[in-house]
Amino acid sequence: MVVAKSGAGKTRMIKRALSRHPALQPDAEHLRPWIMARVPSPATTKGLGIAILEATAYPDLGRNRVEREIWGIVRHRLAELGTIVLWIDDPRRGKPDQPVPVTRALRDGRG
Questions:
Q1: Whole-angstrom Cα distance, residue 19 to residue 35?
Q2: Where is this region: Disordered (predicted)?
Q3: Total number of domains in the chain
Q4: Phi, psi for residue 89 in degrees, rounded to 5
C-alpha cells in the first residue's frame, strides 16, 4: 500500500515502476502483466469489477450482469491476459481509518 497526500505523485510513481520492471513487460504468455483500475464513485464491489474489466478492454460487458458474474469474468479475464499485478488506484476515499466497502470486501476476500 502506498499512502501519501493527494498530489504527491503516488500514481505516477507506481505507473513508472510497473512499466519499467523487466518481469512486468508484455510477452507471449503475459499479454497484460499489470493492469491499473480506478475505484469508481460511488465505490461498490460491482463497480470495481466493471472498472477492472473496462481497464482490460473487455468487449461487450453489459451493465445488467450481477456482481458474482462480473467477478467470475474478472478472474477469467486476468488469467486470460496473464495478469500478475492488479493495481487498484485510490481504493480509499474519505477518512483513512474508515475503509470504504470495496476496501473491506477486498481485504476480506469477497471480491
A1: 10
A2: 1-21, 92-111
A3: 1
A4: -85, 135
Phi, psi of 26 (to 5 degrees): -60, 140
Residue 7 lies in a domain: no
CA 110 and chain centroid, separation: 14
Residues forming beta bridges with residue 85, ordered by sequence position: 34
- With residue 48 as reference, give the H or E element that holds it: helix 45-55
Contact 2, 14 (CB under 8 A): yes
Q: What does the mean pLDDT of the chain come to? A: 84
Residue ranges making up the domain that contains 97: 29-107
Q: For residue range 27-77, what is the model confidence (pLDDT) as tens digits? A: 888 899 999 999 888 888 899 999 999 999 998 877 789 999 999 999 999
